[in-house]
Input
Amino acid sequence: MRKKLTDKNSISAVLAELTLDEKLNLVGEYSACRTLAIPDMDIPSLCLMDGVTGVNGTQGLLDYITSPERAGSQEEVQKLYRMIPELMELNYMDIPKAREKYHDNPHVLGLIDQFDRMRPQGKAPVSFPSGINIGASFDLENARRVGEALGYEMRGRGVDITMGPNVDISRDPLGGRGYEMYGEDPYLVERCSVAFIKGVQSTGTAACAKHYLANNQETNRNSKNTHVSERTLREVYARGFKAAAQEAHVKSIMSAYNAINGEFTSYSRKLLTGWIREEWGYEGVICCDWGAVKEYKDKSLAAGMDLILCGPNDMSGCRESLEAGQLDREVLDKSVERILNLIVTLREERRNIPFDYDQEALLKAACQSIAEGSVLLKNDGNVLPLSSDKKPVFYGRRSKEMFECGTGSTAVITNLHSNVYDECCKRFKFTAFEQMDEADVVIYTAAAVGGENIDRSEMNIEKPDQEKIVSVLRSAKEKGKQTVVILNIAGPIDMCEWIDYADAILVVFVPGCMGGVASARLLAGEDYPGGKLPVTMPVRYEDTPSYPYFPGETKDVYYGEGIFVGYRFYEKKKVDVLFPFGYGLSYTDFGLSIQKTEFTRKAESEEQISIPVLVKNTGNRTGSEVVQIYAAEECPHILRPVKELVGFSKVILKPGESRLVNVEIREESLRYFDDNKGKWIMPVGKIKLYIGTSSAHIIGEASLQVNGTNEYVLSGDSTVGEILANPEAVKLVDAYTGGMLNPETNENIAFIVDTPLSELLGMALITRVPDAVKLNTMLQELYDKLGKL
Output
């Protein structure tokens, strides 16, 4: 009898008795969504399914069809594949009726049994709000709470690892999966990721941070080569993954399809082992995106991969590499060990976490999260919320059929739906659809859809609504009616044609099955919009930072904007936007006052800085405000943004209520990565702090003095520009060179600010001091004195 997997202490003994085929089938995944089960060793299969908006029913079908244990000929398998569109309704169909309908098809009956097991209390799947909704809440408690709800939903349906969250950065408005991401700012994404993952994993369900790394488009996503600097990768695109690994202790990380600077991420030892394992100290499971590792599986395992999705996989190539000594057996054993460790960890956690599936509680959490992340962009004349005696009329098909979830990974097949029209019919005595004569307020619901496998074709709402919304809103204003637009959108859209005709604009993004309920509650004033924009709304697509580069040339995409993603670019280039990052109105008004304007800290200190801001609700309704802190180094040594988000805090206040909000600034958020030095730098000197309610709405400033060792000691490697920034250094160099840096005598000085000082002096002084020994002695003396300034 072989050893059984009982706890972590049993793993080494179990590992020693596993056969080579069993090990290969564990890392190779056994079916579309499950790892190999080994009953005699008490090793259960792990179920890995998308996503973070709920259970992906399509994957449930594929898992059943691809299961090696399911008996059936190839012809029968192909028949099931052809039936997939029809079989989708099994996700929510009444089980007895389904069995009756397919009573003569044993293969479908087996599938029905599987779906029955994945339906707690017979309940259909819940579709949760998307990542962009959660990012828009600027509320870490909300992110944790909805993560917890999602974790219980997945656990109730037999899912061990939910394949998310999407920790990528929303780089371009047309990115097909931008709605899955928390926003355009790496600090916002980092903090939301940590909170959400902790929420999911508090339920005994494992999370999976994806897609590592720089996965920001669907066009050529399987083959594209992303050209991007290391600084941009580290400062912008990797921050969420690093925080997920080190702070949230996420149990798995998924590599992306794309290549980075010529090397596919799923085969990159630098990214998988060098960064994740060695630099970040991560000990969890690394898996690849579905089908990202089809060939050369041995090379992927050698690079640091643990689990190859999706199965079943042909692992014969790995066996041959092992037998030939090309793949180290210790590499395979380590991957298997991590998988076994994850199985044991989840089993132990679930013993200690009580669980009772409560769908009403999950729907309530989803509805609350939608309100927390809904953004009020405009509210002229305080049209919203609507009083109970208002007579609303709704326009647009999305008023009755909301865009609830994206396609692909985030698609949740369910019969749980809601729409704003039906929900408002329950709340207002008079409600009409596309007949405005008797109405006094016209509400137009418009969508911009997004999903996996294809990027958005334009930064606009759906084509049937593009002309219609202008006509309807203009007509309503001509008849003296109030107008409201509900934006049910996956990302930024062009509003220029109709924005002047809209009195109020409410953004609910991609809300899931409770979108209609939440929208109606917001319109009626039963809830308040608590969100801020997690992405900038540009005036037009051509203004966006990635516009010249997206989606790339053939198989290459160049991240030419570098670190200047989103608001960082618009501020650096002084480009006007429609609505800035972090912007959002409320049904009430707030006053903010800074309580302290000077701060000091030591470099490398682990202590956080706390910025106290007094917030008062000066209106007559309960609402929330988000205090946002942006930072800018006053004398940067390298190119940096005008300012960047380093802290935020949300506060909910009743009318007249005040509260002192302490916004914490973490030491890591002040750092930047210097490519030339190859390391993270903590700036010393003065840092300006901007306190506001968006990136553009700043109510005051404070100064932070950081004391410590300057990483940029002046030397021959310093640029002329760095020397010019220090008056004492200019005097010193001029004393040795006879005024070389004096702009009055050197009219070309503006053209050499990026030239290293040693290069300039070497060219300029060689004719004055022809003796090389004397010249080098003089220069070394100068550099030594510069280093002491």
